[in-house]
Amino acid sequence: MRVEIWSDIACPWCYIGKARFAEGLSRFEHRDEVEVVFRSFELDPRGAKGVTAPVVEMLAKKYGRTLDEARGMEEHVAATARAEGLAYSTEGRLHGNTFDIHRLLHLAAARGRQEELLDLAFRANFADGAGVYDHGTLLRLAVEAGLDEAEAREVLADDSAYADAVRADEREAAELGANAVPFFVLDRRYGISGGQPAEVFTQALQQAWAGREVPEVSPAGDACEPDGACAVPERS
Amino acid sequence: MRVEIWSDIACPWCYIGKARFAEGLSRFEHRDEVEVVFRSFELDPRGAKGVTAPVVEMLAKKYGRTLDEARGMEEHVAATARAEGLAYSTEGRLHGNTFDIHRLLHLAAARGRQEELLDLAFRANFADGAGVYDHGTLLRLAVEAGLDEAEAREVLADDSAYADAVRADEREAAELGANAVPFFVLDRRYGISGGQPAEVFTQALQQAWAGREVPEVSPAGDACEPDGACAVPERS
To answer: Mind giving me the DSSP string for B176-235?
Structure first.
């Protein structure tokens, strides 16, 4: 089975949802036959690159709250994250454009290091106050994830590198009906929206597993069966 | 959209079906958004490695026909292949165990050269009379496909390299309901069995595309929407 997870590094429910999904997956008996792929979704695609603002200011503005109330909102998310065993610092977290870390995550996918980089990026953004917005930090994370430094530097320097891959992921999210993240898709058959409790993921995995036989859309054509028996064309 | 194609190199309908699928895909308007992945399926997994027999002898035995009749069967398949623009030689084609070429195809997938190697392997087996059964030929094909020679040699020498990947593909085929090849799976939602005419593939691609929105299996959980609006936890 294949699970695709759309998320943004700037999304705390993605950070929390990833941990809850991992917990749900660990309780699923066929977990060793599940391939997990991470896909790009930018919460703020129109935000200027490299321009950041404190998250609490962004929250206060967006929800029409005071800075203290916005801080309270962050504290609530932090408490939820900590309940999942995730480090979360509410001090000085920044909000900004995540296009470059998504491009880098596609390079990491091509090199078999995607989840390593994703975990480091979440941690940098939510636990370490490092953010994922300046190239120095991104390069450090890339190297820590096992990527080649020169290659990562090249991708960061070239705005077009993996840009199409990020946009293709975002287009696919829209086509599949995902308009918020995290969004989990099981075998392109079932969707799960949001950072659900672990048991919701386990149940969905079981449901998708049970119904995975694919119906055929047309009568079978000429084919070969095990032991080498191939359909023989009709003699004319 | 993602299309997975289960096939065996020893299967002429897989060789023909791949060309027909490519033709059907080329007529599909969203072809640039289709990712194609090739998966392993052995027709003769119990055949001893390195032991081969002429295909016509195998066919005669399997169908209880004379060698001449078996040759006629091969000629019919060859004519079908040639009608698709594929080279096909009926002289001296061998049948055998394809585990090693499947292992090598998984290495090629990891290096982004899977389809290159698959096309070369089909050609070696059906057009050039080279077969895909001895390591010398396999190594030559691997290098021609752009793989590193030392790495390919290592994989061939180590029976366990990518063995689990081949078996996982075969287990998945069984779970999805595929018991003959070629077998095409569109977004894990629709199956197509056999080397169908190109228009069957085009229609199936259109049908799968139209119905690709994934139903959600549970009410949405906490999530972040574009422009940074994240669900705020209920205050206790």
So the answer is: HT--SBSEEEETTTEEEESS--HHHHHHHHHHHHHT-PPPBSS---S-EEGGGEEPPPPP
Where are the domains positioned within chain A? 2-230
Residue A229 has pLDDT above 50, yes or no: yes
Q: Kindly state whether B82 is in contact with chain A, defined as any CB-CB distance less than 8 angstroms.
A: no
Phi, psi of B11 (to 5 degrees): -105, 110
DSSP assigned state of B158: -
In this structure, the number of other CB atoms found within 10 A of the CB of residue B76 comes to 16
With an 8 Å Cβ cutoff, is B218 touching chain A?
yes
- B112 contacts chain A (CB < 8 A): yes
ipTM of this predicted complex?
0.85
Residues in chain B with CB shorter than 8 Å from the CB of A72 are 235
At A151-172, the pLDDT tens digits run 999 999 999 999 999 999 999 9
Interchain CB distance below 8 Å, A45 and B226: yes
Q: How close B122 gets to chain A, by Cα (Å)?
A: 15
Topology of the domain comprising A2-230: Glutaredoxin (3.40.30)
- The reply to whether A69 touches chain B by the CB within 8 Å rule is no
In sequence order, what DSSP letters do the residues of A123-164 get, joined into one string?
HHHHTSS--S-SHHHHHHHHHHTT--HHHHHHHHH-TTTTHH
